[in-house]
């Protein structure tokens, strides 16, 4: 039997506020354990929560960017459960009256315009963190994270493949970073994702039994876990015993590449939701919505289209550049200084991204200004230096912070464009490589590339390659 894959995602992201969701404690990663706590976030009796306005603004901005319908009347609820990392034994969240519903996110892949529908966007508080001491029979609890503003984004179950889930998460992360909602650092836990997946026979309307997968610490892990679940569920449903799947929560194990049962899946009634008695209903005014809407900058999809239309660069280049706001800002800053956009794009896509990967850094962490980068491109474009020398100078600028022109002079990398000097080198290359000369004259035109390379080697990479090729052609075609 053939099956259709049905996936829904639950994304949690910590918001970039100065303080926690319901108290004045610092919202900061990396403090010593339990140093950023107070009676409110520790759940002491008699304490009262107060809503963080900045968190509401960031959540609203996200909902608007995801084309959601905003609920002007919001109610916070208590989600009751016992976990050792939740000091109150309940979590303040939203249930029946969330911040926003019925949104969508358009896929930024250039091959399609698929829309993933957003079921709801709501605010809540994060829980603490359990630290399992190696070799010990106990665990420690750090409550610094308890109470940090958390935004939950829940999709409709209309994602059709693990690859589509990966693309959605990548696009969502880009939007959250563009709007400075979250740093989306999965290693620090500021972005987490749970995935619900089921299979149903092709053509059947009714959804299959849902399995939730947790413990995925990267988008790659989400994709791999879902791919594993597709295979596991298909084998069970198509097996000789036709096993009926049970609704459950499973954990992804990176080492084995498999999921394992954790517990049976909870339903809403298991959490015994009730309105939070210590918080009044939150009413969001039209004025607050319009003010927040005005702070939304150009989003990735619109920026990709503008890069293609205004800068005349390929769709692939535009997608890569726009995927990182800081990289896109750097690209535009260089273009404003004068170089041709396609040249800027080419150099960023090849040389700069290669260096970023090697250094494991972001563009803002490199010792490279738009002015210095522009200078290097102009030196190459004006044929003052060769492209190879430009790549060398780029790395030297990043290493030393020096001025490109000074480094060219210091390293003696000025391109040789003197016809007499180049002809002398070309004649020497022909004399030293008679076999290549014979190959060219017998019709093996690729021998010309070898001869150009020989001259470039002789000139230490400083010869003008176009002039060298023209001079060699003249000499080779002479009788």
Report on this model:
This protein has 479 residues and is of the alpha+beta class. The protein folds into 3 domains: 3-292, no CATH class; 300-411, no CATH class; 419-477, Arc Repressor Mutant, subunit A (Orthogonal Bundle), CATH 1.10.10.410. It contains 15 helices and 16 strands. The protein has helices at residues 53-65, 162-178, 219-238, 286-293, 300-311, 315-322, 325-336, 341-359, 370-381, 387-400, 404-411, 419-432, 434-441, 447-458, 465-477; strands at residues 3-14, 69-70, 73-74, 76-80, 90-94, 100-106, 115-125, 129-132, 139-142, 149-155, 191-201, 211-214, 248-253, 258-264, 274-275, 282-283. The strands form 4 sheets. The chain has a 9-stranded mixed β-sheet, covered by helices on one side. A 3-stranded antiparallel β-sheet has the order 5-4-15, with no helix packed on it. The chain has a two-stranded antiparallel sheet with strand order 3-16. A hairpin with an 8-residue loop joins strand 6 and strand 7. The protein is elongated, with a radius of gyration of 30 Å. The mean pLDDT is 90.
